[in-house]
Design goal:
By secondary structure, the protein is mainly alpha-helical. It has a single domain (12-133), classed as Arc Repressor Mutant, subunit A. Helices cover 62% and strands 6% of the residues. The protein has helices at 13-36, 41-53, 61-68, 72-84, 106-144; strands spanning 88-92, 100-104. Strands 1-2 form a two-stranded antiparallel ribbon. α1 (13-36) packs antiparallel against α5 (106-144), α2 crosses α5 and α3 crosses α4. The longest helix has 39 residues, at 106-144. It is globular and about 50 Å long.
Length: 156
């Protein structure tokens, strides 16, 4: 369900800025951990997506491109680099031989597990600030629901 955006004068810049800061802080720490483990941040994200969706969706190149919000060819290049490092493998999908499925190999699993432990610990530590920032935005938005929208006065 979509809600109407607030009027320009009513935008809570402080809450939006704080939410953006908290999200960016969380992501920056993930990026640093990935680099310390010898991965580029997008390589870590691809490993995480493959592992995170494999029970509910087939992790094809197309699905991963959507999940990472990058182009198909960029996803192929990312997978190529991870295949070269022995972290993932690709195979043809059984249902549609045109589709390429990506699987995490044991070595990739070990790297991902190590990074995930750090990510979960950091998330537990940083979650209250992130939740507060998001809650401020949601609370602000939900407090406006139910109120009639203000109409601009017309001058003739």
């Amino acid at each position: 369900m979509r809600t109407r955006p607030p009027a320009a004068g009513r935008v809570d810049y402080e809450t939006l800025a704080d939410l953006r800061y908290q999200v960016r802080r969380f992501l920056r720490v993930r990026e640093e951990l990935a680099r310390a483990a010898g991965l580029e941040p997008q390589q870590y994200l691809l490993l995480l997506q493959v592992k995170g969706i494999e029970r509910t969706r087939v992790p094809t190149i197309g699905v991963l491109a959507e999940r990472l919000q990058i182009r198909h060819h960029a996803t192929v290049q990312l997978v190529d680099r991870l295949v070269d490092r022995g972290l993932v493998r690709r195979r043809r999908a059984e249902a549609d031989r045109r589709a390429v499925v990506v699987e995490v190999r044991p070595r990739g699993d070990a790297v991902l597990r190590k990074l995930t432990i750090h990510s979960l610990a950091e998330l537990q530590e940083g979650a209250p600030a992130l939740a507060a920032a998001l809650g401020g935005l949601i609370g602000e938005n939900s407090s406006r629901r139910g109120r009639p929208a203000r109409r601009a006065s017309r001058r003739r």
